[in-house]
Amino acid sequence: MARRWGRSSRSSYESAWPAYVPVAVRRKQAEKEAAALRKKGRVVTPVLIEGRKLTTTFWGKAWCDHLESYSDYANRLPRGRSYVRNGAIVHLEIGDGKVEALVRGTSTYTVKLVIKALARPRWSAVIDECSGQVTSLVELLGGKLSRGVMEIVTHKARGLFPSPEEISLSCSCPDWATMCKHVAAAMYGVGARLDAHPELLFRLRGVDPAQLIAKSVGRAATKASRPRSRTLADEALGDIFGIEIEEPARKAPEPKTLRARKPAPAAAPKTAQLAQRRRTPDEGAGAARSMPSSRRRPTSKAS
């Protein structure tokens, strides 16, 4: 016998579902909630979508594509897409291994996502596979990677993104489902936030992106010549810390000093006769006085 719906049964059925809230009204409610939190001194970072696409960059798209690749999530995530588009995420904050969000529905609900840190052996494997292929942090965060590196970091089992087993979900709404539409909205909100701040993915997984750069720079330095390796290291450090490293000033060559020449030793007299010629008259007279009398010549007396 077919069940007939009377007025009382219809009213009880309709009361089980919350009243529909138009998109414009929901957006105003979210803005009002954010303003009230700011008045209380709380820092609020809503997720605002501009345009038709939820994500537009490499990391944002890769995050959403990865989550949608799991059948457990693929059937439930679309429930939150409209919430994100309509500005229902009043606040979303990504920290070390966690995501906290305030999502506006019939009321404002608190969503918490706890994500396990990337296992060290898995992170070491990513570093080794990307070694020598990522030489700039700007290149890494901008998603300007080679096809090989992209396949490594986005690999479903060995990449940077978490699996459902590594994610714990909770929401303060009365929905019994593990992934309610508020949680689904927060999951998409993470992808939208990675569009502007891709470095938050590495913070969420508890790893340091600079290690990828250091490994690549170290490998390049060993292959290059000594002066070239120093230049590569300076450029890489400038990219990591966002500074310009000045070249050290070269020292001017010291002027050469002229050494004084030593005077040449005087030539010794070859014969005693030459030495006798060089004697002074006084020395000659003295020598004559010193001669014995037997050798002196007789002098004639004046008459």
Question: Can you describe what's shown?
Answer:
With 303 residues, this protein is of the alpha+beta class. The protein contains 14 helices and four strands. It is elongated and about 125 Å long. It has helices at residues 7-15, 23-39, 58-68, 71-74, 78-85, 120-130, 137-141, 147-153, 181-196, 199-205, 210-223, 226-241, 272-277, 281-289, and strands at residues 89-95, 98-104, 108-115, 167-171. Strands 1-2-3-4 form a four-stranded antiparallel β-sheet. The longest helix has 17 residues, at 23-39.
Which whole number gives the mean pLDDT? 75
Shape: elongated
| Structural class label | alpha+beta
| Largest beta-sheet characterization | 4 strands, antiparallel
**Poorly predicted regions:** 1-15, 218-232, 283-291
Number of strands: 4
Distance between the termini: 195 Å
Q: Largest sheet, order of strands side by side?
A: 1-2-3-4
Structural Rg: 46 Å
Percent of residues in β-strands: 5-15%
Q: How many helices in DSSP terms?
A: 14
SSE sequence, one letter per element: HHHHHEEEHHHEHHHHHH
